[in-house]
Amino acid sequence: MEIIVMGCGTSQGVPLPAHDNPGLDLKEPRNWRTRASVHVVIEGHHVQVDAAPEFRLQSIRNDIRKVDTFILTHGHADHVLGIDDLRQFCTNRGGLAIPVHSTPTGLDRVRTIFPYALMERSFSGYIALTLHELGPELALPGGGILRTALLPHGKDDVLGLIFEEPSTGAKFAYFTDCKALPPRARELAAGADLMIIDALRPNAHPTHLTVSEALGEIEAVRPKRALLTHMTYQVGWAEYSAQLAGRDPEVGLCHDGMRIRLD
Ligand SMILES: [Zn+2]
Ligand SMILES: [Zn+2]
Question: Domain range holding 84?
C-alpha cells in the first residue's frame, strides 16, 4: 500500500492569508500546507480521499494519474470543493463516472454543489459521478478492504477510514477532522502500521483534537507509527518535530507531498 499526503493543513491552509502567522517559519517548506487530503494506492487500486480546493495542484505536484474510487470523509468546504477537478481523471477512464462514497450528509453536499455531475457517463469532457452511501465496510476492486467508523466533528459525523491490504497485511487508519476516537475507531485501528490523525493546534477547539488530545488517542490505539494532520500555523514543523522525537509509538508531522509505503 502507498499513502501520499496531498495536503495536511487546516481548513484555511497554512500560512493563513491576510495574517502575520506569528512564530511560523515560512522558509521551511514543510510549513506550507494545502488543505487536508490523502491518496491511497491499495492492491493497485487508486483511492482519493477528499478533494481540497488545491486538488488540481496537489495532483500535478504528486503526479497522480488515476482515481478509481473517491471517498468523501464529510461535506466541509476544505474537503469537497476540489471535486470538479476530477474531470481529467474521469476523461482518462473514458468518461465513466467516478464512484463517490460518503455519509448521507456528505452525499447531499455533493448533490447541492455539483448537481451537473450526477450521471453514469460523461461524453463531453466534464465530470461524471455516481453517489454511494458508505456503510461499515467496503470491498474495493482489487481486493483491498475499507472499514469505517463515524467520528464526532460538531454537527456532522466524519468517516474515519481503516484500509487493509490482504496481499501485504498492511493496515492504515486515517482520522481527519474529529474531536475524539469512539471505541469502534480505536478497535479497528489497533495494530495499524500507520495512523494519520487530526491535531489542529495546541489550544482547545470545539470540533477538532488538539495536539495533546491527538497524542492521547495515539497512546490509546498504539499504532506502529502515527502522523499528525489538519494543522494550523501554530504547529511549526521544527518545534513540534523536536518535541515529538523519541516517543513510543513513533509520532511525527505530515508534510505535503509525503509518501509512505507499507508492505
Ligand atoms: Zn477539514
Ligand atoms: Zn471538517
Answer: 2-16+25-261
Question: How remote is the CA of residue 141 from the centroid of ligand 1, in Å?
Answer: 27
Please spell the DSSP secondary structure of 28-63, one letter per residue. SGGG-B-B-EEEEEETTEEEEE---TTHHHHHHHTT
pTM here is 0.98
CATH of the domain at 141: 3.60.15.10
The three cell numbers locating residue 197: 490523525
Distance from the alpha carbon of residue 168 to the mean position of ligand 1, in angstroms? 30
pLDDT, one tens digit per residue, over 81-103 is: 999 999 999 999 999 999 999 99
Residue pLDDT, tens place only, 180-229: 999 999 999 999 999 999 999 999 999 999 999 999 999 999 999 999 99
Name residues with Cβ closer than 5 Å to ligand 2, which is an ion: 76, 177
Cα 63 to middle of ligand 1, angstroms: 23
Domains in the chain, number: 1
Distance 146 CA to ligand 2 centre (A): 21
